[in-house]
Amino acid sequence: MGFLEAVEILSRRAGIPVPERRPGERGKRAGLLEALELAAVAYEQWLADPARGAIARAYLDRRGIARDTVKAFRLGLAPAGWENLAERLRGKVGEDVLIEAGLVARRDGGRGVYDRFRDRLMVPLCAPGGEVIGFGARALGDDLPKYLNSPETAVYRKGSFLYGFDQARRAPGADQELILVEGYFDAIALHQAGLRNTVASSGTALTTEHAKLLRRVTARVALTFDGDTAGREATLRSLGVLLAEGLDAMVVDLPAGEDPDTFVRNGGTAGWAQARAAAQDPVGFIRQHIFRAHGPGDPREQALQATVRLASGVSDPIRHRLLLERAAGAFGVGLPVLARAVALQRSGGPADHAVRGVVHRQRGQERSIERKLLRALLIAPEALDRVRTRSSPEDFHDPECRELADWLWQGRDPLAAEDAPGPLARELRASEGADLDWDAEAMGAVRRLQERRVREELLDRRNRLSHAAGDETARLMQEIDGLARMLRELSA
Ligand code: UTP
Ligand code: MN
């Protein structure tokens, strides 16, 4: 707010009389805010009106929104009809101001105005100080668009607005973590469930301005996303923006088909606590959702590219280093290689190419161990029983090797298969040649696969431990202890 406004507000709060500013002096901003406030009050009254508000109140009841929540968020109703608001504010607010506030539009032909919002549930958008600066207007049925929002005005800019911020920043624990959701109703539902440190990005891509605003009040953001591809891509982009502004970020995964609203309505805060405890840090998120995905392209390469892009935006040297160390561990690549790729990315160089090279080399190494084990099993099938107790086909990263392992583990004979994995099996079998102790070869190779898996699990648990609380901490420490012992035994 401007200086004069601040003086006015503080004076009023302190009970000091404020001289009226003459209309000419009065800021345009103050005029718009006054119009928006009057509109919000009108919408609230229409919602409370026994007859006019009945359908909208029933809608809110169906969605489990309590009276207190309606009040706290100042939800309202724009009744059907073209001039309810224009009529109500006539004489109180000039037409030009109403137009500039985005509340009405001028009729074609120039005479008179009509309401922008009609027959919709009104969600006031409030500035960090609580002033109404615009509205999101939800259809009460299946009308499109679902939301009609205020246009950008002198007081409302979408790129810097976070819904619920005013309340969230005062919530207990907000300085440690804010929960970031997409929808107005997600934020409302979480607040109602007691998770008052929640803000919504209103369905737009997160901007640097949003991140700066968050940074002013909190250290960490817990992002929740829709479990679909679009949601995941949006999450990756948002992570980049948050990390670049020096915020910590965690990603909370919800079960498929749920959004935060339905999720807390069904599972309450306990359900949320569980999902939050299982949250992933950025690298964990990338690993879980890209590395293990079965989409087109090489998932490991995509995961590393995503990590390199993420890291290249992080300028703080310590955070940058931590992120790369974590990624190096999670994806099993060397730190210097990653650092080089980031440097290339930053200078506009061929970072993609560098990453591809690393992945290629690494895949070669991994595959050679997996092939070694499979070859030994094909030549000395009696080793299979012992190998089977120590590893499973999931331990194979190379898809072809994994398929062949699947066959062997199931006791099927791959050598007889015409299609995959037949050709690979015959190729490995044919390279027999050297007179090795195949049993010992198999046991050596399976031990290296085990080591690789335990290392991965250990990293995952250590990473979770750094964000865990309560019972979860003790459980993770126990797991880490066990895994570390296993690793020592394996490499002994
Ligand atoms: P959602 O569709 O997830 O909204 O869109 P929601 O708030 O959860 O709505 P319900 O639960 O269906 O009532 C996320 C956000 O995207 C913006 C809004 O800010 C919405 O809250 N949005 C969505 C629009 O601006 N216009 C639209 O037509 C749809
Ligand atoms: Mn929703």
Kindly summarize this structure in a few lines.
Helices cover 55% and strands 10% of the residues.
Keywords:
4-stranded parallel beta sheet, Dna Topoisomerase Vi A Subunit, Chain: A, domain 2, 492 residues, 10 strands, binds uridine 5'-triphosphate, DNA primase DNAg catalytic core, N-terminal domain, alpha/beta, 21 helices, 4-stranded antiparallel beta sheet
Description:
Strand 5 (132-139) and strand 6 (147-149) form a beta hairpin. Helices cover 55% and strands 10% of the residues. The chain has four domains: 33-156, DNA primase, catalytic core, N-terminal domain (DNA primase DNAg catalytic core, N-terminal domain, Alpha-Beta Complex); 165-279, Dna Topoisomerase Vi A Subunit, Chain: A, domain 2; 290-349, no CATH class; 362-428 and 436-491, DNAb Helicase, Chain A. The mean pLDDT is 91. The N and C termini lie far apart (66 Å). It is of the alpha/beta class. It has 21 helices and ten strands. The structure holds uridine 5'-triphosphate and manganese (II) ion (MN). Residues 183, 185-186, 259, 261 line the site of manganese (II) ion.
Spell out the blueprint of helices and strands.
Elements: H1 3-14, H2 28-48, H3 54-62, H4 67-72, E1 76-78, H5 84-89, H6 95-100, E2 104-106, E3 113-115, E4 120-126, E5 132-139, E6 147-149, H7 165-168, E7 177-181, H8 184-192, E8 198-200, H9 208-217, E9 220-225, H10 229-244, E10 248-253, H11 260-277, H12 282-291, H13 299-312, H14 317-331, H15 335-346, H16 351-379, H17 384-390, H18 399-409, H19 422-430, H20 438-465, H21 471-491
Parallel strand pairs: 7-8, 7-9, 9-10
Antiparallel strand pairs: 1-4, 2-3, 4-5, 5-6
Bound molecules: uridine 5'-triphosphate (UTP) and manganese (II) ion (MN).
Manganese (II) ion binds at residues 183, 185-186, 259, 261.
